[in-house]
Write a structure and sequence with these properties.
heterodimer, A: 9 helices, 0% strand, B: mainly alpha, rod-shaped
């Protein structure tokens, strides 16, 4: 008895293991850089497609995936389609009537997530990238500098400004 | 080190390899220790919030027709260009060629008329026959005029 009705899972390949381990992390990173969950999923899938098509040289795949993801996010943000579909976020296109939470709601403290995200969205692209890589990915400054084509001093400066802006957003929440 | 640490030094302490002097100051300065703790707590809070899915944007999206207006304009312009190109590239009958065709047709019709009106070649029809009142062309076309008079 026993063997007839059971299904046996195929042994996981290295790619599947890597996908299972790294995909959520990549999605989170792309979400931070793109501020769009759907686009983040797309880019993360794209990165793994590249991994399948052109496997990198043996080494730490996680770092390679992160670099490719950062570049893919850059490309996405630079594309005309991206700019065009997000033009509505320009200040000129915004409604004069505020549709966000009222000051009362802000003060009640139910919108901390919104507040932090709005502050993060308002950061310049470089600051967002540096913060994401330093804080979430915990990359050392030198690696971040190399990946983004900046000097280590510049990375520190971007990080400091990002931290200041985000802390300011917390306001009286502390 | 007696002076309190600046904000950027505190951020460095959090993210970079700790500087021994800064650490030494932190261990003796209650103010800086509190500031450092506040920084670490804030970053933990920020990290936790950013770990969640981003909330929907509060900005009012641009109306859909305004978003598609440039595309529609471009498509209309392309359509106009294509239609114009098609209209102007249509084969035009040149006047000389047209006149020659007209002359050929006129010549052909004159020959046909001449044949039809030629009484000398009409078989079986007597041009002097006074009873014959139908026009020759009608007789020739109907084909039975000659036979009828033969009887």
């Amino acid at each position: 008895m026993g063997g007839a009705g059971t299904t046996r899972c195929a042994p996981e390949t290295g790619f599947e293991t890597l996908y299972r381990e790294q995909f959520p992390r990549l999605v989170r990173l792309c979400r931070l850089l793109l501020d769009d969950p759907m686009e983040a999923q797309d880019v993360a899938q794209e990165v793994f497609m590249k991994l399948m098509q052109r496997p990198p040289a043996p080494g730490p795949e996680a770092a390679w995936l992160t670099r490719v993801a950062i570049n893919a996010c850059h490309d996405r943000r630079r594309s005309w389609w991206w700019r065009w579909t997000r033009r509505s976020e320009d200040a000129s296109a915004m409604s004069l009537v505020a549709t966000g939470p009222t000051p009362e709601r802000w003060s009640l403290g139910g919108e901390l997530g919104t507040r932090v995200w709005e502050a993060f969205r308002a950061l310049p692209r470089r600051q967002r990238e540096v913060f994401a890589l330093r804080h979430f990915e915990e990359w050392p400054t030198a690696e971040v500098a190399e990946a983004l084509g900046l000097s280590p001093g510049s990375v520190k400066q971007h990080l400091f400004r990002a931290v200041q802006s985000l802390r300011k957003a917390l306001g009286d929440y502390r | 080190m007696r002076r309190c640490l600046s904000d950027d030094k505190l951020v460095d302490l959090r993210y970079e390899t700790p500087n021994v002097e800064h650490l030494a100051h932190l261990s003796v300065c209650a103010v800086c220790t509190d500031r450092y703790r506040a920084l670490v707590d804030d970053l933990a809070l920020i990290g936790a919030q950013l770990h969640e899915a981003p909330p929907l944007r509060s900005a009012t999206p641009r109306p859909i027709y305004r978003r598609w207006l440039p595309v529609a304009t471009a498509a209309a312009a392309v359509a106009v260009v294509l239609i114009g190109q098609a209209a102007f590239s249509r084969p035009v009958v040149r006047p000389l060629q047209s006149e020659r065709v007209d002359a050929d047709i006129a010549h052909f019709l004159r020959e046909v008329s001449a044949v039809l009106d030629d009484t000398s070649t009409t078989v079986g029809v007597d041009a002097t026959d006074t009873d014959f009142t139908e026009p020759l062309s009608t007789v020739a076309l109907s084909g039975d005029g000659a036979g009828g008079h033969d009887e």
